[in-house]
Amino acid sequence: MAEEKKMMNGGDVLVKCLLQENVKYMFGIPGGQLLTMYDAIYRWGKEQGISTILFRHEQAAAHAADAWARLTNTPGVCFGTVGPGATHLIPGVGAAWGDSIPVIAIVPQVNSRFEDHQTLQGNLDQITLFKPITKYQKSIRKIEEIPDAVRKVFREATSGRPRPVFLEIFEDAFLEEIEENKLSILSSDRYRAIGKPAVNDELIKESLDLLLNAEKPIIISGGGVSRAGAWKELEEFAEYLQIPVITSIMGIGTISNKSKCLVGASLGGPAVSVTIEADVILALGVRFSHILGHGEEPFWKDSQKLIQVDIDPTNIGRAKPITLGIVADCNMFLKQILEDVKKTKKIEKREWLENVFDGRQKAIEANNKKASRDKIPIIPQRLIKDVLEYIDEDGILIIDAGDLTCYAMEQIDFHKPLGPLSVLNSVGMGHLGTSVPYGIGAKLAKPDKQVISLSGDGSFMINIQDLETAVRLNLKNLIYVIANNSAWGMIKSGQKLAMGKRYIDTDLPEFNYAACAEGFGCYGEVVTDPNEIKPALERAKNSNKPAVIDVKIKYDTPDGTKLLLSMGVL
User: Which domains, from first to last, does the chain contain?
Assistant: First the structure.
């Protein structure tokens, strides 16, 4: 009797390929062309470890995939149906693009026979639509193309500078069938390089010579250190040579605030005077964007010697003149330079670092004094302080964009130590509406960790619908804190400072977010007294539900917003 042939459709093939990439969750919303993919997951995929997470909007699904990728350092997968599903993914994929996060966006295309028939959801050039916000785009029509296409998008998303990629699969490929033994589905180590290349020894020597001969060296640690998992090497190197370290927002946690070498995040607080005085700068996986004053005066000087290390050669020398440019993975660079530096005498004390450390301590004291005020309405600084004091040391902190980011950066590393890959913020795009989906993605990535999200009232409303998703998934110790000043704060600050207080479309009506959250099935509470912030956080934690705390705060303008306005960013 002839052996029965085992047949697979395109949905089966796609799911098998994703399992080879160790994909656990796919974030999205169903569509007609995705039925075979869903059916494969129902029939056998869940048993093998892959599930879909249903969202209420594709934008939120893409943000959740982004959060998953940030926290696990592995690609996050999102999807939507053809046409409107694809267009809804764009904001979330764009935010991941802005921060170099590896997100795989999978979207079907209508059946080829209807390609030019003006059919439902058809006639949309999805490849061109996603080109500006993805590193690589691939479109396939045949079932046998699926394995190679999946390999290509994962290779592109994870190699060099990580970024989102786009995979379009025509319905033809989903509906076709093929014998299982006629396909070659490989594990990741069979088709892409896992290791990182070594750095030229001469470049390591030149870098070390510059740093050893510097009077006032500094290190800037960015997202490249986070993505490379190089935080232990960074801290050891900085402490061996007693060099002050500034982090970008994407680099928060790459050096502990227990280390005397930490100055702070970006240009907030004591970091400003340090950047001006430095004579040699080692920039590790960081872009000189608005977060770092574009590498320009008055924050920096062209006379400074800059060693810039980045996996992406197009970032080197892009905003600030370099002395030495090194295309490398930050982990490999730090391992090699650590090996060399240990052949030199360890620096036990550096006067430059002592002065920087004293400045940091004074900044912490001044901040804590101001942020401890019991005023009503609650000042934003008090809310930030209480949240940062309350959060678990191994917790995950989400900061939605806007004025709140500026307030948070003023004291982000003044309280409990925040670990690497523990702070989520849409830096490059400044994207609003990330709090709810980032929270869901974070909790799925790190189910045993506390997740606290800080959001403005305007931004929180953008993806509020996916509170239902958090409730449906029964996510506990997930707390959303809304800094509610009834305004689009950053834009109102722009109108206040640059437009003579001619306010338009920046004041928001009173709204009870806690009651709204309760309608979704969350725990909800309104806080107006600063002394109730921490007790409310504890009640939220103990509710065993996703929680929303609506904190009524005073409208004001943070120094960071004033700085951005002075740079012409806003």
Answer: 7-190 (3.40.50.970), 201-356 (3.40.50.1220), 372-566 (3.40.50.970)
